[in-house]
């Protein structure tokens, strides 16, 4: 394993120190691992807090700023943060209008955020949680932990953040977050594994000519192993899975996301295939993102996320945003 | 079994978790996200640090502190679930300075109930419950049959190990491994494996404390 680190134990805090040095617009509490907007809470605005394991950068810390999150709590690599962190973040950003917790659907994240919400309510802070579960690779069933939360998290944070910035109430912001999640689906494909620094070796073995269809953002295995195929076929495999769950129609927002180790030239190549597939189904890509937004360390591969837009959602997507990883209109 | 005994158990558990760190992480890599050994090692290190210098006059206070530490320091699913197990066990022991075997049995039942309340897992779903539930039942049964503590703890440890082994043939219905569906069959559940290690450490701590038993 070759990594640009000082020691496997200090990866998260060393990186947070870098985030603090690079972005004066953020306030970084390195000891408690909480990233907030510099300048304290916005009074009267619903605050958005998200968090999850590290290793998915820029998610979530890169999305803290005007028009998106108020705070992010990074856990250890691929490990959910702890309730103390989430409570500290919640208290730091509460502007009196309540706090929305945006939680990706993993057992650990859900349990820890649940405990944090209880602790916050003990301190008279109103918290509503929205769980993101957009990954169609996972069978959604009462008999599993349910679908994983992946790319739609970026859409939820952007669109709910925009509505909160306009002064909407906590229930309104939670409702739009839920709506974006329900209208979004994702599917990921990995070409290689990733290596958790503290583990020191790849999470899974995969042959030179194999891919993992439906991979999770922690290198969790997905639907099946398959032989490597053309970008055209892989894009079609991802979109077939999405289309069979939520038929592609009307105006859509599409993200072609890199897993961390995929060059942009390949992501654009994939985007071309995605664009042809979606327009071929009669839908129209009204907005798009191409790049690394929710990664899995150095994994090679991509995910596609599609959200069925409404006029309101498009308008909120276009609203100004000013964060380290997403910035326009301001 | 007093405060010192439960401290000795946790020290023993910390040692065996650290020794098996890579093994637990490998089990997790097969069907999860490859961090179970890393997280539990961090958690038990934090427990020992929290206990060091803390006043724990009762058996229950040791376990309650251990549980709170896991909840606030570990993260993942294992932090809250093990944290809840230890906290529930500690609270069940109430203010007794010395826990009787019957009180320990009640504490194990409380730990199981705490884990099931939080994680909503039943037996047979390929989770830590598959080691904890048979272990608690075996301990209760041995006591009910009038067996001495040592034998009851042997039964507890054996049932936990057998329960963990039995998860190999199960399909996961809870936790991250459930995403794999049928592909989760053939792998031991890392949470059940670590539960067997921790309960084995309970028996070992008892034997080491009084080697004659």
Outline the structure in words.
- The complex is a heterodimer of chains A (330) and B (213).
- Chain A folds into two domains: 10-183, Dihydroxyacetone kinase, domain 1 (Rossmann fold), CATH 3.40.50.10440; 184-308, Hypothetical Protein Tm841, Chain: A,domain 3, CATH 3.30.1180.20.
- The N and C termini of chain A lie far apart (41 Å).
- With 330 residues, chain A is α/β, with parallel strands linked by helices.
- In chain A, the strands form three sheets. Chain A has a six-stranded mixed sheet, with helices on both faces.
- The longest helix of chain A is centred in the last third of the chain and has 17 residues, at 264-280.
- Helix content of chain A is 32%, strand content 24%.
- In chain A, helix 2 (83-93) packs across helix 3 (107-122), helix 4 packs antiparallel against helix 5 (170-182) and helix 6 (231-245) crosses helix 7.
- In chain A, strand 5, helix 3 and strand 6 form a beta-alpha-beta unit.
- Chain A has helices spanning 11-22, 83-93, 107-122, 152-165, 170-182, 231-245, 264-280, 311-318, and strands spanning 26-29, 34-37, 47-54, 71-77, 99-104, 127-132, 184-190, 210-213, 224-227, 251-258, 284-291, 301-308, 321-322, 327-328.
- With 213 residues, chain B is mainly α.
- Chain B has one domain (3-209): DhaL domain (Serine Threonine Protein Phosphatase 5, Tetratricopeptide repeat, Alpha Horseshoe).
- Chain B has nine helices and no strands.
- Chain B has helices spanning 3-19, 21-31, 36-51, 59-73, 78-92, 101-119, 129-144, 149-166, 190-209.
- In chain B, helix 4 (59-73) runs antiparallel to helix 5 (78-92) and helix 8 packs antiparallel against helix 9 (190-209).
- Chain B is globular and about 45 Å long.
- The mean pLDDT of chain B is 93.
- At the A-B interface, strand 4 and helix 3 of A face helix 2, helix 3, helix 4 and helix 5 of B.
């Amino acid at each position: 394993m070759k990594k640009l680190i000082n020691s496997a134990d200090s990866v998260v805090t060393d990186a947070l120190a870098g985030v603090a040095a690079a972005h004066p617009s953020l306030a970084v509490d390195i000891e408690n691992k909480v990233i907030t907007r510099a300048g304290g809470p916005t009074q009267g605005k619903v605050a958005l807090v998200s968090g999850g394991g590290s290793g998915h950068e820029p998610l979530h810390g890169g999305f803290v700023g005007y028009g998106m999150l108020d705070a992010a709590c990074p856990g250890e690599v691929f490990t959910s943060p702890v309730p103390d962190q989430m409570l500290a973040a919640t208290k730091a950003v509460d502007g009196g209008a309540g706090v929305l917790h945006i939680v990706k659907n993993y057992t650990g994240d859900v349990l820890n955020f649940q405990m944090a919400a209880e602790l916050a309510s003990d301190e008279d802070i109103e918290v509503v949680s929205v769980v993101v579960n957009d990954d169609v690779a996972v069978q959604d069933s009462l008999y599993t932990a349910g679908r994983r939360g992946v790319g739609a998290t970026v859409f939820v944070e952007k669109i709910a953040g925009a509505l909160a910035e306009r002064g909407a109430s906590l229930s309104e912001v939670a409702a739009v977050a839920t709506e974006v999640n329900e209208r979004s689906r994702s599917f990921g494909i990995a070409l290689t594994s990733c290596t958790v620094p503290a583990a020191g070796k790849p999470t899974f073995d995969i042959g030179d000519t194999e891919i993992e269809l439906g991979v999770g953002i922690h290198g969790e295995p997905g639907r099946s192993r398959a032989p490597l195929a053309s970008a055209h076929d892989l894009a079609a495999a991802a979109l077939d899975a999405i289309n069979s769950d939520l038929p592609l129609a009307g105006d859509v927002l599409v993200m072609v996301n890199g897993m961390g180790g995929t060059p942009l030239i390949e992501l654009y190549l994939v985007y071309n295939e995605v664009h042809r597939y979606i327009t071929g189904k009669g839908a129209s890509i009204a907005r798009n993102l191409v790049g690394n937004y929710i990664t899995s360390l150095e994994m090679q591969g991509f995910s596609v996320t599609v959200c069925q837009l409404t006029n309101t959602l498009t308008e909120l997507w276009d609203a100004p945003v000013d964060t380290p990883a997403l910035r326009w209109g301001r | 079994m007093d405060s010192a005994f439960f401290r000795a158990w946790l020290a023993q558990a910390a040692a065996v978790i650290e020794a098996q760190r890579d093994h637990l992480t490998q089990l997790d890599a097969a069907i999860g996200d490859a961090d179970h050994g890393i997280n539990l090692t961090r958690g038990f290190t934090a427990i020992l640090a929290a206990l060091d210098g803390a006043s724990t006059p009762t058996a229950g206070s040791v376990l309650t502190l251990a549980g709170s530490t896991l909840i606030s320091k570990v993260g993942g699913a294992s932090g809250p679930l093990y944290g809840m197990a230890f906290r529930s066990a500690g609270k069940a022991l109430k203010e007794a300075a010395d826990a009787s075997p019957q009180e320990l049995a009640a504490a194990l039942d409380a730990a199981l109930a705490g884990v099931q309340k939080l994680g909503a897992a039943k037996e047979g779903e390929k989770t830590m419950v598959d080691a904890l539930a048979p272990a608690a039942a075996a301990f209760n049964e041995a006591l009910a049959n009038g067996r001495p503590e040592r034998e009851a703890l042997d039964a507890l440890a054996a049932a936990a190990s057998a329960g963990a082994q039995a998860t190999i043939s199960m399909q996961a219905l809870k936790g991250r491994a459930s995403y794999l569906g049928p592909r989760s069959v053939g792998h031991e559940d890392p949470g059940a494996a670590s539960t067997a290690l921790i309960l084995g450490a309970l028996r070992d701590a008892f034997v080491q404390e009084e080697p004659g038993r």
